[in-house]
Design a protein that fits this description.
RAVE2/Rogdi; 6-stranded antiparallel beta sheet; alpha+beta; Protein rogdi; 9 strands; 3-stranded antiparallel beta sheet
Length: about 260
C-alpha cells in the first residue's frame, strides 16, 4: 500500500514539474494571443492596431424623447507617452424638456471639440498592463514555485478584471459633477444650467443620458432619459476578456490542486 502511495506521489510530482515547465508557458502564450485578439477590436491604437476605425450609431429613446446620431472615431495623441482617446461627434441631439412638453432642446458636438470616452482608454490601459505581465516572462524561464505562478496569475487577473469592469460599469457621477465636467464644454449650443448630458458604455452598449433638475412644489428632483444602442466590437472585447479570465482561473485551479496533492 505504501509503495502504491509512493508511486502516486512520484507521478503527481512528475506531472507538476511538467505543468511548471511546459503547460504554464503554453497557457501564457494562449493568453497573450487572446489579449492581442482583444486589442485588435479596440478603436484606439493598441499593440499593432492602428485604431483608425470610424463607426456610426443612432440612439433613440422610447416615444422619441431623445434622439442622437453618433460617429465614434478612434484618435491618438503622441507626446512623451501615447495618449489614445475615443472621440464622439454628434449631430442633431434633441430631447424633450420635461417642464414644457412642447419644447425641444437641441445641441451637438462638433469634430473640433470631441467628447471623450475615458472608459475605453482605461480598458485599453489595463489590457496593455496584462500583456506586459506576460511579455516580461522569458519563454524559456523556469518557474521556481507554485506561489510564483500564482502571483503572476493574480497580476493578470487583476488587470483583466479592471479592464472588463471599465467597460461594464461606468463610474457614478453626481449631477453637479456632470454639469461641471469638461465634456460639457463640447456641446454647442451650451445647455441650460439645470440640464446635463452624459455618454458612457455599459456592458455591450453605448448610452446617452440626459439629466434635468426640476422644481416640484419646492423640492428639486432629477429626471433622466436614456437612449442606447449595441456596439459590436464592445461585445467581442467583453467576451475575450471573459475567456482570458476563465483561462487564468483554470490554470490557478490546476496549480492549487497540485499544491494540495503534491506539496502538502
Amino acid at each position: 500500500m505504501a509503495d502504491i502511495e509512493s508511486e502516486e506521489v512520484k507521478n503527481l510530482q512528475i506531472e507538476f514539474e511538467w505543468l511548471m515547465k511546459a503547460e504554464v508557458h503554453a497557457i501564457l502564450k494562449k493568453l497573450r494571443e487572446l489579449l492581442i485578439e482583444c486589442a485588435i477590436r479596440f478603436p484606439v491604437p493598441l499593440y499593432d492596431n492602428e485604431g483608425k476605425r470610424t463607426e456610426k450609431y443612432h440612439l433613440v429613446a422610447s416615444q422619441d424623447q431623445l434622439k442622437c446620431s453618433v460617429t465614434l472615431t478612434g484618435d491618438s495623441i503622441t507626446q512623451a507617452c501615447t495618449h489614445d482617446v475615443v472621440s464622439l461627434s454628434f449631430k442633431d441631439i434633441s430631447y424633450k424638456i420635461k417642464r414644457t412638453s412642447n419644447q425641444i432642446q437641441r445641441t451637438c458636438i462638433t469634430s473640433d471639440a470631441p467628447w471623450k470616452l475615458q472608459q475605453v482608454q482605461d480598458a485599453a490601459n489595463h489590457l496593455q498592463q496584462a500583456k506586459n505581465h506576460i511579455d516580461n516572462i522569458d519563454e524559456n524561464y523556469n518557474f521556481r514555485s507554485a506561489e510564483e505562478v500564482l502571483q503572476i496569475i493574480g497580476e493578470l487577473v487583476a488587470a483583466l478584471q479592471r479592464g472588463r469592469t471599465s467597460l461594464l460599469i461606468p463610474k457614478k457621477r453626481s449631477i453637479e459633477d456632470l454639469m461641471k465636467g469638461r465634456n460639457m464644454k463640447s456641446l454647442s449650443p451650451n445647455l441650460p444650467e439645470d440640464q446635463a448630458i452624459s455618454f458612457f458604455l455599459q456592458c455591450h452598449k453605448l448610452v446617452i443620458a440626459v439629466y434635468q433638475l426640476l422644481n416640484v412644489q419646492g423640492t428639486v428632483k432629477m429626471e433622466a432619459t436614456q437612449a442606447e444602442c449595441s456596439v459590436g466590437w464592445l461585445n467581442e472585447v467583453l467576451v475575450l476578456f471573459t475567456v482570458a479570465l476563465t483561462l487564468c482561473q483554470q490554470l490557478k485551479d490546476k496549480i492549487n490542486a497540485f499544491k494540495t496533492d503534491v506539496l502538502s
